[in-house]
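Could someone model 3-hydroxybutanoyl-coenzyme A with this protein?
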Amino acid sequence: MSIARVGIVGSGIMGSGIAETAAVSGFEVVLRSRSQATADATLAALEKSLNRQVEKGKRTEEERDGALSRVTATSELSALRDVDLVIESVVEDLAVKKELFNELDRITDDRAILATNTSTLPVVELAMQTGRPDKVCGVHFFNPAPVMALVELVRPITASDETMAATRQFAEACGKSPVEVKDQAGFIVNALLFPYLNNAVRLYEQGVASIEDIDTAMKGGCGFPMGPFALLDLVGLDTSLAILDALYAEFRDPNYAAVPLLRRMVAAELLGRKSGQGFLDYTKR
Ligand code: 3HC
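Reply:
Sure, complex below.
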């Protein structure tokens, strides 16, 4: 099947980044947010991001206008009735996602693929909420979605070859390099990345080095574009904690057991960039 119209549910960092990526790649995008106010705010942020790219000479005004004309922002789930692919990108909560897949199955055309951008939750459980488990898979983008080259295509045991081929075609049309991975918590990237991020917090908690020095060390010593604390703040400490908890729940591996400081910071609502303060302070930048 070919994909032309894409529905995105959730307008957080990932949902809006995926919407931008799909729209600039020529797809019609219906972005569904919980309220019309957040839908409008996401559209305004998308315009700002595209304007910045025009100013930098990365895009023409025509490309910007074309991308914007392809995006509709709405609070109505029923607006997804005619899409070919839905990418769900709401909170990492299995109960919330299950209910949403149930609704999406009722609302969308039977031939539509229903995908999730989850980074750790079992895709098969979402598939089994629908009457089309063969058409459900994971399409996992990375933050920031318009920039990062990778998409993990997550294959639950229920998905058909056609579903995986169509989502691969979509990811490639978005200019991404897809890899296929089994439906197991953390897939490839987060299974390897999060023990590293968690151990960086442990090192700091043990007083081995400062946040700034650990970040400087990993950038200078390993050539990483960001240090672990800048990356935790970019991903969001609440999302990072949810990922570690899901990895620990699946494997019971102590490497995945969240360091207490991370949990305390989330309790204190120090969530990273999105709250203005995480391991680093963004209020003065
Ligand atoms: N939207 C669109 N474009 C963006 C952007 C965004 N949100 N953020 C940055 N960019 C663009 C900039 O415009 C710039 O483009 P240009 O070079 O053509 O002008 C380019 O990206 C580089 O940005 P900056 O010059 O502002 O800053 P940096 O050179 O420091 O790059 C970065 C920023 C791309 C975020 C880089 O630091 C990086 O690659 N960091 C690592 C990010 C990473 O590891 N992400 C994965 C996280 S794990 C994950 O997502 C999984 C999930 O499940 C948790």
